[in-house]
């Protein structure tokens, strides 16, 4: 197990999937990350790459050939190579291999960087295309935060507070994990989204192209909470396993296939493109209080 620690936070990681395992605020004696209880969901904060969400039929087409990828891609199940640029930062590197090329025909270098900044954790995904031809990919985070955070509160005592008023619908997910063609009302000129376990009984809440760049997980009954600045990520997923005591706040640069997708990778909604020898970085920052 790898770790970072400063005066405020203790954060632990597993090289399998470069996955967060613990976020602990020392002065508050507060755990913030989900504990990975397999009765509900054994993951804690998987990395989503080279796709986000589900492909129609778990299949995509590129240059006339078909390829199969499971939900959220393969990075979350692979061992990354860790390195420490400083005492407050750790990088995890994953490179393409003969195995990955069977499912994803692109050379790549994926670096996941974690850095402590006071009471905040900065998480960056840098994707590099080391080849000379274009590369198509998606990447995203899937951190699960404990909820409730205080012993005298319940799940539905909490809400999400966006930093801008939003008029945005929810894009429902089918049983197969695909995005429906028709959206449903969710945020109606509001910046507040009350939480309940029931709101995730039909899978994730998928939001597209929010005006906000930051949301806060709060309760009026406690000072304990957290902020997530998701910056330039164009999509946001909110999810919890049925009746589980956590909330996933998921910044995505990519999205699941729609029910009417033609499965062509280069035409996939939200797909990111890198020319040869280029790189692209997406960052989110979580602050804990």
| H/E series | EEEEEEEEEHEEEEEEEEEEEEEE
Task: Catalogue the unreliable spans.
Answer: none
CATH topology-level fold name? Beta-galactosidase, Chain A, domain 5
- How would you describe the shape? globular
Radius of gyration: 19 Å
CATH class: Mainly Beta
Lateral strand order in the biggest sheet: 8-9-10-11-23-19-18-15-16
Helix proportion? under 10%
CATH architecture: Distorted Sandwich
**What is the domain tally?**
1
Question: Can you count the helices?
Answer: 1
Largest sheet: 9 strands, antiparallel
CA-CA gap between termini: 25 Å
Describe the structure.
The chain has 289 residues and is mostly beta strands. It has a single domain, classed as Beta-galactosidase, Chain A, domain 5 (Distorted Sandwich). Helix content is 2%, strand content 47%. The chain contains one helix and 23 strands. The strands form five sheets. A nine-stranded antiparallel sheet has the order 8-9-10-11-23-19-18-15-16, with no helix packed on it. The longest helix has 6 residues, at 98-103. The mean pLDDT is 97.
């Amino acid at each position: 197990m790898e770790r970072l620690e400063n005066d405020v936070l203790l954060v632990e990681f597993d090289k399998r999937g470069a996955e967060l395992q613990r976020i602990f605020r020392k002065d508050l004696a507060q755990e913030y990350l989900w504990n990975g209880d397999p009765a509900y969901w054994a993951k804690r904060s998987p990395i989503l790459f080279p796709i986000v969400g589900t492909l129609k039929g778990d299949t995509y087409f590129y240059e006339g050939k078909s390829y199969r990828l499971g939900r959220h891609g393969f990075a979350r199940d692979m061992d990354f190579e860790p390195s420490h640029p400083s005492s407050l930062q750790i990088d995890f590197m994953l490179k393409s291999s003969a195995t990955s090329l069977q499912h994803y025909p692109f050379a790549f270098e994926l670096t996941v960087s974690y850095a402590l900044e006071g009471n905040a954790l900065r998480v960056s995904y840098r994707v590099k295309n080391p080849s000379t031809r274009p590369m198509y990919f998606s990447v995203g985070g899937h951190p699960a935060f404990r909820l409730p955070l205080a012993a005298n509160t319940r799940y539905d005592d909490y809400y999400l507070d966006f930093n801008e008023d939003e008029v945005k619908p929810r894009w429902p997910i089918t049983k197969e994990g695909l995005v429906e063609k028709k959206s449903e009302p969710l945020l109606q000129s509001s910046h507040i989204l009350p939480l309940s376990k029931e709101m995730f009984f039909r899978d994730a809440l998928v939001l597209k192209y929010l005006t906000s760049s930051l949301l806060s997980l709060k309760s009026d009954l406690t000072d304990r909470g957290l902020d997530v600045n998701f910056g330039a990520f164009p999509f946001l997923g909110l999810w919890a396993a049925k009746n589980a005591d956590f909330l996933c706040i998921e910044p995505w640069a990519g999205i699941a296939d729609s029910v009417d997708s033609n499965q062509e990778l280069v035409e996939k909604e939200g797909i990111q493109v890198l020319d040869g020898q280029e790189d692209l970085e997406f960052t989110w920052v979580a602050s804990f209080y």
